[in-house]
Design a protein that fits this description.
Blueprint: E1 10-11, E2 33-37, E3 46-49, E4 55-58, H1 68-80, E5 85-90, H2 96-99, H3 102-106, E6 110-116, H4 129-139, E7 145-146, E8 152-155, E9 162-169, E10 172-173, E11 202-207, E12 210-214, H5 220-227, E13 238-241, H6 252-258, E14 262-265, H7 275-282, E15 289-294, E16 310-312, E17 324-328, E18 334-339, E19 346-349
Parallel strand pairs: 4-5, 5-6, 6-7, 12-13, 13-14, 14-15, 15-16
Antiparallel strand pairs: 1-8, 2-3, 2-17, 3-4, 8-9, 9-10, 9-11, 11-12, 17-18, 18-19
């Protein structure tokens, strides 16, 4: 049975009415907001499923490798989240470990709309960009939607309000409003980052009182521009550690300002999960735990998350590709985090705001 729904992803100034099939009817869902962190070996793939069963895939991991990352995403989409389509596919920025499988996914499963920061004519750090972006243009039929800092969207959620706001895109940041950031002085300016990392799209999801922030590979100086001298983000409950946990990102002026309760690091066995970033996380006042998609094989076990909070402990050649899932209660007053199908389900309380 197919049910028509209003408001697929709607900018507050524009309402679009579409018809779209869903794998599970909205009134059959349990009203939770589900957030999956899919293991793509140090790339990024983040699947969000709303209470109305609307799906948003942010980034898609590395291409090639015999379809490894594409197949891991499809497994979560089809077999874990029980979806028949991806409603929205978002690209945070134009590095291959973030948009590498958008085209191959589109060949395997229906994708409703594509979203990105706008397609540049060239990318200085990628000599093959012209060829690679052609596949993306073809998959999106050259009709992807451009996200800009300040854009705000309302998603159908069957009750508890669910919104997403674009906080950064193409090196632009939202207006620096909000309360003064008491951690602003922790910013120490770094040399300008001219790579596309600094142009990453950052998204702030708000579901009732629950807040989730994901910033792609946004780098140090733009992070500071976003949250100094004022903090327009506020505090968050869940934070996807930026840039796989690399120290060129995760400026303490931002990380300490958002003061997350839980953080998830999408690192690989040898990429990210850096001790400097972990030290920054350890300094967060409200942090109860951080999860890692991978054990950093080059870092002592005592310097990273405890083993029960690491999804994959083996090198890539032996990796099972286990995911991490956060699931927010229908009233958004609490949420759970678990590692894989068999992982222990831990419950956390949404902070009061």
């Amino acid at each position: 049975m197919i049910r028509c729904r209003l408001l697929t992803l709607v900018m507050l100034t524009t309402i679009t009415i579409i018809q779209c099939p869903t794998a599970v009817l909205a009134d059959e869902r349990d009203g939770r907001l589900d957030i999956y962190f899919i293991d793509v070996e140090g790339g990024a793939a983040n699947l969000i499923v709303t209470p109305a069963n609307e799906s948003i895939l942010i980034d898609s991991g590395y291409p090639d490798n015999n379809g490894r990352d594409r197949d891991r995403i499809l497994d979560v989409v089809r077999n874990v989240a029980a979806l028949e389509r991806i409603d929205h596919a978002v690209v945070s920025h134009w590095h291959l470990d973030h948009y590498g499988n958008h085209a191959s996914l589109a060949a395997e499963i229906t994708i409703g709309q594509f979203w990105d920061r706008g397609i540049p004519d060239a990318l200085q750090e990628d000599k093959d960009f012209e060829t690679r972006i052609a596949d993306y243009r073809s998959a999106s039929q050259n009709e992807s939607n451009t996200l800009r800092a300040g854009d705000s969207f309302l998603l159908d959620s069957n009750g508890t309000p669910l919104r997403v706001k674009v906080m950064t895109a193409s090196r632009e940041v939202v207006t620096n409003s909000g309360p003064p950031n008491p951690h602003a002085s922790k910013h120490e300016p770094q040399p300008e980052d001219t790579s596309d990392n600094a142009a990453s799209v950052s998204l702030l999801f708000t579901f009732g009182d629950f807040k989730y922030l994901t910033c792609g590979d946004l780098t140090w100086n733009v992070e500071a521009e976003l949250v100094t001298p004022n903090n327009p983000l506020g505090t968050v409950d869940l934070f996807m550690v930026t840039h796989h946990g690399l120290p060129t990102s995760n400026n303490p002026a931002l990380v300490h300002a958002i003061d997350p309760t839980i953080a998830v690091m999408c690192n690989g066995p040898t990429k990210g999960g850096h001790e400097q970033t972990i030290a920054t996380l350890k300094g967060v006042k409200s942090l109860q735990q951080w999860y890692q998609l991978h054990r950093n094989v080059n870092l002592d076990d005592t310097a990273q998350a405890p083993a029960e909070f690491i999804a994959n402990c083996e090198p890539t050649v032996n990796c099972e590709g286990i995911w991490v899932k956060a699931s927010v209660a229908p009233d958004a007053k609490s949420y759970t985090v678990q590692i894989g199908e068999e992982g222990k389900v831990r419950t956390y309380v949404t902070r009061e705001r």
